[in-house]
Design the sequence.
């Protein structure tokens, strides 16, 4: 019997009970569509990370100080003294207080507050949309001034000009002197758009913070990044007498670390989605075993008129593969649709469709049909004609 004839027979069987066929395919549909959607989201995230860091250049170093106690801490003056080191062009220490209550008029929202100096905006490649950024005089005189991100401005003022307006930050009044253009997140993942920037000494006094946790260091050129990183590591080792309690990452390492984390998470989610495919395969095997029982007499009649064992085996194997293949095709279409629609559902999340992943997911779904259809097909092919005809 030709494959085309087997395919037509399988198609007729599938059409005879459409509801059962759809329910059987459900696991495969969910598995394939999930794999395609999750991989698209993961790849979209990786590309967004690359694009985000491309704008920061390759000569930016991030120093994170995570130790406890004075033995592993640096104050503002100690960090800024490093700016005189050969190869370093600028340093911006920061203090951050996440989810801080900020009030304007009768509206209260929570945003990140970042205490820093006048170098910060240049190091983060940010741009002022209106007004100005922090100046050295604001730090020297501990002025109560603030620069707000684009999301903060939109939340409190809409289309109005916020310059010279006052906001209440953690119980203290700050005058807005500038608004930033939309930028996105920095190397530490903090959104510049949802942050309020104030002079570091002012924040240290108002928030009673004394420790610098993060400092951004700009090397004079990309060629000097490695040398500056080594110099910083030697300085911190001599200062803390230890190799722990601090980390220094350059832009390339941060990109690699973020992409690795994103890839790991995506792979884990895809593995979970693949389990749905296996569950779908088990469902196909279960239904095919039921089908073999229901059509035992048909198998006996076909064998009694000359059908060979391989004809019966191929008949049920093609049927199982057809069901899983149809499920894979529907899952493929659904996955592509979800990948294209996802940026509209969640504007902050981009996706990137991969033809190869879609093809692999579809082929894997067909393979699932072959693997899980083999046992029922083999069982049907081994039936003896006389026993099959006596089956009630």
Sequence:
């Amino acid at each position: 019997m030709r494959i085309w004839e087997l395919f037509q027979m399988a198609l007729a069987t599938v059409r005879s009970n459409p509801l059962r066929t759809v329910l059987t395919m459900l696991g495969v549909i969910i598995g394939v569509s999930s794999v395609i959607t999750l991989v698209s989201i993961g790849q979209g995230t990786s590309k967004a990370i690359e694009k985000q860091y491309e704008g920061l250049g390759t000569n930016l170093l991030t120093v994170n100080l995570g130790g406890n106690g004075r033995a592993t801490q640096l104050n503002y003056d100690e960090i800024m003294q490093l700016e005189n080191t050969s190869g370093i062009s600028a340093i911006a220490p920061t203090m951050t207080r996440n989810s801080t209550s900020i009030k304007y008029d009768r509206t209260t929202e929570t945003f990140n507050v970042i205490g820093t100096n006048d170098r910060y905006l240049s190091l983060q490649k940010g741009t002022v949309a209106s007004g100005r950024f922090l100046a050295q005089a604001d730090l020297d005189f501990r002025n109560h001034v603030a620069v707000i991100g684009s999301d903060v401005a939109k939340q409190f003022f809409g289309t109005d000009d916020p310059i010279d307006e006052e906001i209440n930050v953690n119980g203290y009044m700050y005058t807005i002197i500038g608004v930033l253009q939309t930028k996105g997140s920095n190397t530490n993942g903090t959104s510049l758009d949802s942050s309020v920037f104030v002079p570091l000494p002012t924040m240290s006094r108002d928030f009673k913070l004394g420790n610098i946790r993060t400092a951004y260091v700009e090397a004079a050129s990309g060629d000097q990044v490695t040398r500056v990183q080594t110099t910083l590591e030697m300085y911190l080792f001599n200062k803390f007498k230890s190799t722990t309690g601090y980390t220094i990452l350059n832009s390339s390492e941060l990109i690699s670390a973020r992409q690795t984390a994103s890839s790991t998470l995506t792979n884990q989610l895809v593995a979970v989605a693949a389990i749905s495919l296996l569950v779908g395969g088990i469902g196909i095997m279960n239904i095919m075993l039921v089908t073999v029982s229901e059509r035992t007499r048909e198998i006996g009649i076909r064998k009694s008129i000359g059908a060979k064992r391989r004809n019966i085996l191929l008949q049920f194997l093609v049927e199982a593969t057809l069901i899983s293949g149809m499920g894979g095709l529907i899952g493929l279409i659904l996955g592509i649709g979800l990948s294209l629609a996802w940026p509209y559902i969640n504007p902050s999340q981009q996706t990137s469709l991969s033809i190869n992943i879609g093809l692999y997911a579809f082929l894997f779904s067909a393979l699932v049909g072959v693997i899980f259809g083999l046992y029922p097909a083999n069982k049907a092919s081994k039936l003896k004609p006389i026993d099959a005809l006596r089956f009630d």
User: Anything to note?
Assistant: The radius of gyration is 32 Å.
